[in-house]
Design brief:
By secondary structure, the protein is mainly α. Among the domains are: 29 residues; 32 residues. Helices cover 43% and strands 0% of the residues.
């Protein structure tokens, strides 16, 4: 999300709180601190469950099987280094050396 959408979401949330809060306070007369503690405990519990069993944890509850998940990519050792040229083998060289690939593929000729 960009900064403008985050700011608009925050303003919308504050507007909803201003509109809804007086009725909620009137309905919860004398029980506000108890309800705040209950909701805080619920959110802390959900956060701990997500932290310990969520997608980034070592033991996720809902993980894809290993065959369906993407393997972790290894970082490159040196991004600025030029790749090494492929080894030249004089036995596999032909007249058109540009048509021979390093993996032995020769495209069809016209």
């Amino acid at each position: 999300m960009n900064k403008i959408s985050l700011a608009l979401s925050a303003i919308l949330t504050l507007a909803l709180v201003v509109i809804i809060a007086p009725n909620i306070f009137a309905m919860n007369q004398g029980k506000i601190l108890r309800n705040i503690a209950i909701w805080l405990a619920i959110f802390v519990g959900l956060g701990l469950i997500y932290q310990n069993f969520g997608p980034g944890s070592p033991y996720p509850l809902f993980a894809l099987p290993a065959a369906m998940s993407r393997p972790q990519l290894q970082p490159a050792q040196n991004w600025n280094a030029d790749p090494a040229p492929p080894p030249s083998n004089p036995e596999t060289k032909s007249k058109d050396s540009d048509t021979n690939d390093t993996q032995g593929y020769t495209p069809p000729r016209e």
